[in-house]
Amino acid sequence: MIKSQHNTWIHLLATTLAISCGLFFQIDSIEWCLVILAILAVFVSEALNTAIEFLCNAVSSTPHPLIQKSKDVAAGAVLISAIGAIIIGLIIFLPYFKAYLWLCFN
User: Fold this and answer.
1) Catalytic residue among 8, 41, 46, 85
2) CATH number at residue 40
């Protein structure tokens, strides 16, 4: 998946950032669970998207509107899970960033 999907590298970068922020801000166990679930949701949806793309390509090498729609829906699922993960990250980390900036500049 890492070799064939460019967006997986972006997800890995975001995962590294989220874990680094969690360690830096020492988030609690509930917040860790939410961050990990969000990360897993993105990678699971990316894996399913990749599987659907490979399956569609194996079924037909010629373009077909239904195959393209199924690929688009699978890619949309990845986008929805990534947006959800971003929202969870903002809800968890924004208060920590605000408090940190407040301490730095006051």
Assistant:
1) 46
2) 1.10.287.3610
Q: Is 31 annotated to bind ligand?
A: no
Instruction: Provide the H-helix boundaries in the chain.
Output: 6-25, 29-59, 65-105
Q: Judge if pTM exceeds 0.85.
A: yes
* 31 catalytic residue (yes or no): no
28 is in an annotated binding site: no
Q: Do the annotations mark residue 72 as ligand-binding?
A: yes
Q: 73-100 pLDDT, tens per residue? A: 999 999 999 999 999 999 999 999 999 9
The answer to whether residue 1 sits within a structural domain is no
The reply to whether 73 falls in a domain is yes
